[in-house]
Amino acid sequence: CRDPPILPLLAAGLWEMLQQQPWCPYKVRAEGAAAAGRLCFRPPARGFQCSARACLAHRSPSGALVANALRNGSVLLQWAPPRPAAGLRGFALNCSWDGTYTRFPCDSVELGASCRDYLLPEAHGGVRYRLCLQPRYAPPRPAPPAQCVEFRVEPAAMRDIVVAMTAVGGSICVMLVFICLLVAYITENLMSPADIINPSLSRQQ
Fold first, then answer.
1. pLDDT-based confidence at residue 177 (cuts at 50, 70, 90)
2. pLDDT tens-digit readout, 141-159
3. What residue ranges are annotated as transmembrane (predicted)?
4. What's the sign of the alpha-carbon dihedral 81, 82, 86, 92?
5. CA–CA separation, 149 and 21 (whole Å)
């Protein structure tokens, strides 16, 4: 949970600060908890692009919601502004993951209307997640269908094993090539043609 600077908050008020600063207000509610959750703020990840070497993007069927699974185990969610924008109150983000025999709920998040992304700092490797983003409008406008995306985070241990195996395999290949070149050099330069054709001649001489 990241709070905004307290001095601007006391000087100009919460609303004016939120209008001037690109903060995204949100609340995290643990499953089964009675408390409404603490109000937190985070800066948006503007200009973020998922690079192929460090990130894997998973999209909802409509493409409006994207889950960017990063190699450090975190997941950055991004979504497009909903239509219509009038009367939008915010978003509800629901999370669940597959267990061995059933699906378990994660913490739910309430986000402000200005939010366009949210970071899941620690996603469990090897677990299949399902995240659904539901826009919320002021009555009497009904809420549109939720956008959902499913993905699986690659385990960190598996990533390390793959990298290590790739490095070891490359080293072995280099060593084999070096040995083959060394054997070819010895065969061509240290042994005479007569020795190669009939080694017994050299012993008789």
1. low
2. 888 889 999 998 877 644 4
3. 161-186
4. negative
5. 29
